[in-house]
Amino acid sequence: MSAPGRQLEPAVCLLPLRGFLGATYIYAALQKFHDPAFLDPSAPGSFAAQTASFRHTSPIGFALGPAHDHALAFGLLIAFGELAVGLGTVLGLWTRLAAAGGVLLALTFFLTVSWNTDPYYYGSDLGFAFAFLTLGLAGPTRWSMDAWLAAGTVDTSEPEDSRRVVLKRAAATGITSGAALLGAAGAGRLGRSGRSKQSPMAQPRTAVPSATPSESGLQVALAAIPATGAARLTASGGDPVFVARTADGGYKACGGICTHAGCPVGVDQARGLLVCPCHGSTFDPKSGAVINGPAKDPLPSFPVTVADGVLRVRKN
Fold it and tell me: What residue ranges do the domains of the chain occupy?
């Protein structure tokens, strides 16, 4: 009779999960610091623009008002929160606190960004929440900085020994935070230096013609509508609307909220497409039709009228 195979200890089994979750959240944070549009309220894919959209679709929309009104502070809080959670998870530093932060962030993303994703398992945020919950329940393992810093301590239940462990963790946190801030600053500098080469989601406000609401609806001068791509208008509620020239010489107006998960889309003038910054769906501005998913439904259309060189959109 053959001997049973050797089983790996749970601490080793959790290492791939820790590595994946930590690297993903660190990458997400650095991506936000690198993207000059994330904290630019005039950019279609910015934190402010997405929050304005999610207020209409999220079950916690009533609580998103302060985040929208103080977009810079909350945007930085999200980015630094992801960075802290990612580093804590990878290093095993303040393990349960990092896991709790990961659960909180993932649930927040699920109730806002992913809430309208259908079916729900297309959105990864709920899966991240349960994955972080697993790490939190497991707690620190011997393959963590928490265990390494506690090594040599006689009894962590004693106040003096417990105080030494806390001081060691605080020192490690300070060193890690300093390195993280340098990395975030470097990513932010790269994002600013690459502003001229940035993605269509982060074009300067002059790159996409815009219009303001009027009593009869939205309006824009015909001369401001590009031959390819689209002109961006802003409705009174803050939602984007895009106007494009059609192949038959007419005009088309469609909504600017992605039908997949409710993110505000932006315009890629070079490719002549409307692009969702959240999950990559693309739409044809001349018809609102889906070109690439995961979105399945086209963007809604609005009637337009043309008079005296001005196009007006009637959006109820």
Answer: 10-197, 208-313
